[in-house]
């Protein structure tokens, strides 16, 4: 049997720029801060990097969503690579750059791939805080957005609100339970020196927060930042000679479908593509969901954490909010600590890559005040419109 | 209920949908080979991969699968609360359409029966929905 690609790969270094809202630094500087930190953390020099991947491809539109391209990063690092790649919006979400790096390393094309994600959405909001979909240069809306924008749904908040409402109605939960995801995120962010929002909030604060699109409130939505995250994925043959205890990519899971091009399947209480990612993840390992000791679950909106957690079987269908209610079982000292760095809700929208960074931070025991005792197996989920999951393990 | 709108571009595959309301009928692309309805329209039938596809009128009736009341102003213009919903058309399971339901936010509920009502903006007839009990106002 062919060995799974991810079993040949290790994460050997991580780096993250200072978070800013806004940052005084240019996006390329933020990228270099993260990249050089990750390369040094991996015990490497820039010249050792022979591949670079990011997500998504550089874009000058979309309000700072991806201001730095892979080629630009390569030149700024003063290196010459064998392979450059970008994950696309149409792939399995944010993690497609990590999956591309895994394939490049496992296929023998690269030894050390630098993966980065840079966002400058806070800087973009200094120019305009208006929805680019409503005010953009085109008089009319086309493609996917044509199915929602003419009806005033210009924000992903509107779409994810539909999922939250349907989930509440089906399982009998409400904001009193969902709010604990935000409260937990803020509690953990207070112990993360690179989080954007650190002032504690209570469930009462959550329930009093401004309504955005029912049932989602302000604290259900993540926050625009400027910042960059990077990691180095190395071949296992070289990883053993690098300074950090290598982090195994125990399994990967990815899925598409069920949502996209204006097409939705299911009853709006599950993410069909994430379900596929979860099934793939557990088909590639002997570990089971019960073995996971910390989970970094995408929280572009709080409801993502619910749907993703169920998709990767950390909770049964309709059980997530029963587990999350009260916030104790998901706390740092609980049965299953989640979003231990504050997630995107309070840590800032590093756009999925903050979650992988946090998983590695935990597995390497670098969490400081937010360290989960004995963290050995971390599940990471990324994405709202394309889906990627990782199971990361330390020996 | 005023909704901040940007109109859809009439594209080759979708123009029929946006102009269908001219004769007060909602049309959805239908496969003549297997009978499958598809929305948004695709180049082939996703069920049988057939190409014998054409817009056909539907009843315009459906039920609310989920909804949200938008309160946030996404531009500097003020916004009144409006209802954005996903509607499952009566013709087929999971045949979903996103739209607005022209109803008071507090009257909304999942499962609400709704019927289409078109609102013309320039060359676009937007298919909006009203609760069925109010459909014959
Ligand atoms: Zn067909």
What this model shows, in words?
The complex is a heterodimer of chains A (395) and B (137). With 395 residues, chain A is of the alpha+beta class. Chain A has a domain at 5-127 and 224-239: Thiolase/Chalcone synthase (Peroxisomal Thiolase, Chain A, domain 1), CATH 3.40.47. Chain A is built from 14 helices and 13 strands. Chain A has a 9-stranded mixed β-sheet with strand order 3-2-4-7-1-8-13-12-11, with helices on both faces. In chain A, helix 1 packs across helix 2. Chain A is globular and about 50 Å long. By secondary structure, chain B is mainly β. Chain B has 1 helix and 8 strands, in the order H-E-E-E-E-E-E-E-E. Chain B has one helix spanning 15-19; strands spanning 27-31, 37-38, 53-57, 61-70, 82-89, 96-100, 113-121, 124-131. In chain B, the strands form 2 sheets. Chain B has a 5-stranded antiparallel β-sheet with strand order 6-5-4-7-8, with no helix packed on it. The site of zinc ion has 8 residues of chain B, from loops.
- The proportion of residues forming helix of chain A, as a percent range, comes to 25-40%
Radius of gyration of chain A: 20 Å
What is the tally of helical segments of chain B? 1
Q: Give the structural class of chain A.
A: alpha+beta
The second-level CATH architecture of the domain at 5-127 and 224-239 in chain A is 3-Layer(aba) Sandwich
Number of helices of chain A: 14
- How many domains of chain B? The number is 1
Query: How many β-strand runs of chain B?
Result: 8
Strand content of chain B: 35-45%
Terminal-residue CA separation of chain A: 24 Å
Order of helices and strands of chain B: HEEEEEEEE
Instruction: Find the CATH superfamily of the domain at 5-127 and 224-239 in chain A.
Output: Thiolase/Chalcone synthase
Entry summary:
By secondary structure, chain A is of the alpha+beta class. Chain A is 33% helix and 18% strand.
Q: What would the keywords be for this entry?
A:
heterodimer, A: 395 residues, alpha+beta, Peroxisomal Thiolase, Chain A, domain 1, nine-stranded mixed β-sheet, 33% helix, globular, B: 137 residues, mainly beta, three-stranded antiparallel β-sheet, 1 helix, 8 strands, 4% helix, binds zinc ion
């Amino acid at each position: 049997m062919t060995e799974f690609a991810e079993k040949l790969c290790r994460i050997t270094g991580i780096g993250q720029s200072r978070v800013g809202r806004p940052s005084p630094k240019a996006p390329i500087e933020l990228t270099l801060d993260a990249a050089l930190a990750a390369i040094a953390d991996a015990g490497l020099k820039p010249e050792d990097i022979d591949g670079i991947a990011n997500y998504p491809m550089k874009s000058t539109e979309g309000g700072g969503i991806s201001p730095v391209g892979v080629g630009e990063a390569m030149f700024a690092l003063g290196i010459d690579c064998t392979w450059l790649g970008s994950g696309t919006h149409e792939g399995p979400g944010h993690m497609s750059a990590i999956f591309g790096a895994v394939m490049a390393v496992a296929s023998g094309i690269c030894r050390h791939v630098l993966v980065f994600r840079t966002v400058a959405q806070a800087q973009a909001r200094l120019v305009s805080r208006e929805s680019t979909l409503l005010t953009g240069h085109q008089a009319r809306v086309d493609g996917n957005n044509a199915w929602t924008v003419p009806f005033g749904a210009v924000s992903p908040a509107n779409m994810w609100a539909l999922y939250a409402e349907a989930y509440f109605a089906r399982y009998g939960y409400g904001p009193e339970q969902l709010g604990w995801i935000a409260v937990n995120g803020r509690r953990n962010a207070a112990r993360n020196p690179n989080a954007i929002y650190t002032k504690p909030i209570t469930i009462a604060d959550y329930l009093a927060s401004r309504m955005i699109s029912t049932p989602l409130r302000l604290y259900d939505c993540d926050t625009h930042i400027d910042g960059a995250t990077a990691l180095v994925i190395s071949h296992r043959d070289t990883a053993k000679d690098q300074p950090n205890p290598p982090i195994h990519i125990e399994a990967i899971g990815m899925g598409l479908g069920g949502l996209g091009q204006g097409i939705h399947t299911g009853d709006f209480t599950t993410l069909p593509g994430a379900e596929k990612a979860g099934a793939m993840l557990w088909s590639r390992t002997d570990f089971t969901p019960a073995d996971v000791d910390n989970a970094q679950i995408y929280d572009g909106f709080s409801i993502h954490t619910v749907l993703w957690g169920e998709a990767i079987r950390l909770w049964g269908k309709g059980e997530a909010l029963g587990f999350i209610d009260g916030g104790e079982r998901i706390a740092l000292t609980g049965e299953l600590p989640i979003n231990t760095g504050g997630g995107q809700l309070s840590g800032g929208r590093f756009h999925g890559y903050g979650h992988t960074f946090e998983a590695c931070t935990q597995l390497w025991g670098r969490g400081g005040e937010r360290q989960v005792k004995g963290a050995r197996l971390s599940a990471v989920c990324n994405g709202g419109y394309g889906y990627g999951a990782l199971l990361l393990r330390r020996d | 209920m005023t909704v901040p709108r940007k109109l859809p571009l009439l594209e080759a595959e979708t123009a029929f949908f946006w102009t269908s309301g001219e004769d007060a009928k909602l049309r959805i692309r239908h496969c003549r080979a297997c009978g499958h309805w598809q929305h948004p329209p695709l180049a082939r039938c996703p069920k049988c991969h057939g190409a014998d596809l054409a817009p056909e009128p539907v009843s315009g009736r459906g039920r609310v699968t989920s909804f949200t009341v938008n309160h946030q102003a996404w531009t500097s213009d003020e916004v009144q609360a409006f209802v954005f919903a996903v509607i499952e058309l009566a013709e087929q399971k999971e045949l979903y359409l996103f739209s607005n339901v022209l109803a008071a936010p507090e009257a909304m509920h999942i499962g609400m029966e709704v019927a289409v009502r078109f609102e013309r903006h320039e060359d676009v007839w937007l298919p909006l929905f009203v609760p069925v009990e109010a459909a014959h106002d």
